[in-house]
Amino acid sequence: QVQLVESGGGLVQAGGSLRLSCAASGRIFNTMGWYRQAQGKQRESVATISSGGSTSYVESVKGRFTISRDNAKNTVYLQMNSLKPEDTAVYYCKVWNAYGVVFWGQGTQVTVSS
Length: 114
Fold this sequence. Notes:
Shape: globular
Order of helices and strands: EEEEEEEEEEE
């Protein structure tokens, strides 16, 4: 049974920073990533990182967010700097195993006040 434990969300003022963590139990995963869903909007991909370290970002966070991973700890991180009110959302960790099966975290709330 794969479990994803997220942490690091919270309330921050615009311009501030937060670091999200997602620790995955079980085997080593291929791609790991972060998604977010703002109230009344569809869930969107924020950033992904492959097992080899290749990264991709949604345009709106480029230059502000950094995704990284520690394979020894099966953990993926999202460093979020220069946060904006429009970054407010529930952030979800998502991982893919070697067979393409997807697992989701429970979500962590990020609220950015103006």
